[in-house]
Structures are given as structure tokens and as C-alpha cells.
Amino acid sequence: MDLKNKILQTPTGKKLLSEYQLNLLTKNNIETLLDFHDAENQKLNKLLAIKLESVLEIKKELDMLPWQSETFVETVNELDFGTGIEELDKFLDSIAQPFRRGRVWEVCGQTGVGKTQLMYTLALNFVWKHKLQVLFIDTKQDFSTKRIQDMLLERKVDQETSEKAMADIHVVEVLTSEELIEVLKAFDQQMTDDVQAALKTKVVVVDSLAACFVDHRGREMRRTRDSLLTEVACRVRKLAVRGVAFVIGNISFSQDSGTF
């Protein structure tokens, strides 16, 4: 299905965009879903002569459509990764939601409830079981190698196995949402270029999403925050279609904790 038909499946696109406006996309080399997502929001705002909020809404609605394979997309195997946590895997199997390729999880909770420990465990269990790699995106600048080493010591593994597991968890520090987007873009490009390290990376862990949006809190930053969140979602979705699973940590707030 071409881009125009996809956009017309969205409520906002169907309501606001004419055939003439949709043809402008093609004339400006915006011909696929990913071309549309990759296009600057301000460019689409001017090109289509619609509000910036409407551009963001169309992108969000496109993300809600059933996934359609495009020429660059690899077929996602139904290979179950498993979490390595027996009771959790049993529960996930019971609701037909096992941890597998292309799965995107958001792990939410208040500070101190164990989100990071769960993400460490999932990352270590994955490299341990599958001999593949994990991209661990650390937005809090507090990744603890010692915690991983302690977990390995508890498993009583030899030094060579321990060093291999540590090496397979590739940690990248990011400070801002813009840096997070750039890391995801670079990873996707490496997959396209057949970089072996990228092709062997099948899980991305983000700890945590909220930390890199700390400068965009409050109602006055809502438009910028929504735009960046949409861009992150598009990048995650594109990689998920290619078979990469995501575990994204986020913070939940009580009603009286203020506006994020």
C-alpha cells in the first residue's frame, strides 16, 4: 500500500488532506511511510499547509495502523527470546505475549521499585542464552558494571564466560532526547550497512526514557516534547519491524507529583 492510501486511513489525514496536498509529498520525494516519518515536522507543516499539531497527530495515527512490510524491512521471525525469568515467561505465555523479536515493552514504575534491576537481568539473560548482543542506552549515566559482575558471580561462571557476557552488553550514554534519536538512527543505518555488530544486536534497553526528557517538562514545552516523543516512537517502530526488541524504562507519577 502506498503512502497516500496509508495517510488516508488516518482520521486526521482523511479529514485535512486533499489529493493535491498528498501529491505534493511525492513531488518532494516523500514516497514511503519512513520518508514521511523522517521528514522534519516543520517541513511537512509548510508543505501541506496544516498545523504542526496536525502533522504530529498524523504521524501518531500512522503508528497505530497495522504494520506493513516495505522494501527495506526484514521479515521478523516469530522466534521467542524469553526473559530467562521462569515465572515471568509462564505469565507472558499465558497471555500470548512472550518476549520475542520486534516486541516493544515499556517498564513503568516509581523511583526505587526495581526497574533498572529488571532491565539488567533481562539484558544479561539475553546475552547469556542467545550469544547475541544488547544495546544498553544509559540516559542516567549510572550504568553499574559491578552490578552485572555481581550477577555473574552469583551464577558461578568462569572468567572467560563472564568477560564475553560483559562485552556483549554494549553501553552507550546519552544525555538528551536528541542524542537518543541520533543513537537509534545510527544503529538503524548500521543494520542497513550490514555492520556485523549491529546485526547481532537484537535487544535495545533504554534506562530510562524520562531522564532524557527532563529539559522538556511543563506545559510550555508540550509541543517540543510531543514532537521528540513522536520521533523516538518512529525510530523504535522502524527497528522493531526489523526484528529488534525494546525494553524501555519509564517513570510513573502520582497525581499530586506535578506535570511532566
UniProtKB/TrEMBL annotation:
Principal location listed in the UniProt entry: nucleus
Subcellular location: Nucleus
Domain RecA family profile: start-end pairs: 77-252
PROSITE patterns the UniProt entry points to: RECA_2 (PS50162)
Top-level taxon of the source organism: Eukaryota
Keyword field: Nucleus
Listed GO MF terms: ATP binding; ATP-dependent DNA damage sensor activity; four-way junction DNA binding; single-stranded DNA binding
GO biological process terms on file: DNA strand invasion; double-strand break repair via homologous recombination; reciprocal meiotic recombination; telomere maintenance
UniProt keyword Nucleus present: yes
Gene3D superfamilies, per the entry: P-loop containing nucleotide triphosphate hydrolases
GO cellular component labels: microtubule organizing center; Rad51B-Rad51C-Rad51D-XRCC2 complex; replication fork
Signal peptide annotation: none
Descriptive protein name: GL17012
Organism: Drosophila persimilis
Gene field: Dper\GL17012
